[in-house]
Design goal:
The protein is of the alpha+beta class. 23% of the residues lie in helices and 29% in strands. Residues 1-13 have low confidence and may be disordered.
Amino acid sequence: MEKFRPEIKDLPQTMWRVEQVVFEDHKDQITKLIKSCKLSTDYSHLGETWFIVKKDSKIVGCATIETRENLVHIQSLSVSEDMRKKGIARSLVEAIYEKCVNPGQTLIAMTLFWNNPIYRSLGFEHLDPGLKKADDVGGREKHKYCVVWGKSK
């Protein structure tokens, strides 16, 4: 008998409660989570608006944004390793899109390869890599290796 492997769209969607928070109030937990995902915390203090997901009292997901004119950049999208593939990143990105992106703006995500399926499944389009060089957040060198995804409102 052939085993049935459900497609992502066939799996039940879990909505997580996403909270908008002040970075300084949760700095230790957010920084620890970002570092556990092997991401840099060098620019965490520049995040304009932070979003978190908690399980019990522990932060298991976070992300922030940085806005530059008509581009809203997702930064530091992080999910605890033991909580991945449960819809937390999806919930964070959807909340950011709904709460922070105004008509005429584009939500931009610069990522390597592991988050590509998330953005594709949420209707983001693969953008011209020249965009990231022309409007890279803070001109950070690391972004020259990233794929750029965008979703306009």
